[in-house]
Design goal:
It is a single chain. By secondary structure, the chain is of the alpha+beta class. The protein has three domains: about 80 residues, Roll (Chitinase A, domain 3); about 45 residues, Thrombin, subunit H; about 60 residues, 2-Layer Sandwich (Alpha-Beta Plaits), CATH 3.30.70. The chain is built from four helices and twelve strands, in the order βββαββαββββαββαβ. Strands 1, 2, 3, 4 and 9 form a five-stranded antiparallel β-sheet that branches. Strands 5-8-7-6 form a four-stranded antiparallel β-sheet. Strands 10-11-12 form a three-stranded mixed β-sheet, with helices on one face. The longest helix has 13 residues. The two termini are about 35 Å apart. The relative contact order is 0.18.
């Protein structure tokens, strides 16, 4: 049985029930910690108490998944606001307005209509998950998590010597502190480790 905080190797696929469109796919097995926010929270919770080596299908109503569509989140913004930032708004463009992502729906006579609803709001969601195994090896947990975060192959890039964790990712990460905080928060076994970047 999988518990919160366990690391698991999974494969998953997210599907819009209404259209059959696959909006997310792991592509290959990924290693993540359960209940730590590496998957949408509604899905993350479902991993608890699952069994290794089994496949599951979960269906979510819109309100359980990405929420219902809210007409109040569709805004009209003058086109000049985009142009003075060097953005040419066209339908389908994802824009960041005051830190909130939205999708341009239309551009007409100096006005841009932007939808700030989540793109999957109002949709029924199906997730297919294959729980391959629980991961207990420390090195594999670290490599798996970093591979998931940075989307790079971590093979031969994690080394453990005594109480020092050596990560060969200096070309990707410049500052070790935020990474160190993250790793120690998610992987309690390394709280006394020193972390070095190479």
């Amino acid at each position: 049985m999988i518990k919160e905080g366990d690391f698991v190797e999974i494969e998953y696929e997210g599907i819009v029930k209404e259209t059959g469109e696959v909006f997310e796919r792991s592509g290959k097995p990924v290693i993540i910690p359960v209940g730590k926010g590496y998957l949408p929270s509604f899905l993350d919770k479902k991993l608890i108490n699952l069994e290794e080596g089994k496949e599951y299908v979960f269906e979510f109503e819109p309100k359980e998944a990405f929420g219902e569509r809210d007409p109040n989140l569709i805004k009209i913004i003058p086109v000049k606001e985009f142009l003075k930032r060097g953005i040419n708004p066209v339908p389908g463009l994802i824009v960041n307005v005051n830190g909130i992502l939205g999708t341009v729906l239309s551009v007409t006579s100096g006005r841009v209509i932007v939808d700030f609803n989540h793109p999957l709001a109002g949709k029924h969601i199906i997730y297919k998950i294959k729980v391959k195994r629980k991961v207990t090896d420390l090195k594999e947990k670290i490599a798996g998590l970093l591979e998931y975060i940075f989307n790079i192959d971590m093979k031969d890039k994690v080394e453990i010597k005594d109480k020092t964790l050596i990560l060969k990712i200096k070309d990707i990460v410049r500052n070790v502190e935020p990474l160190e905080r993250l790793l120690k928060e998610v992987i309690p076994e390394i709280k006394d480790f020193k972390i070095e970047l190479q």
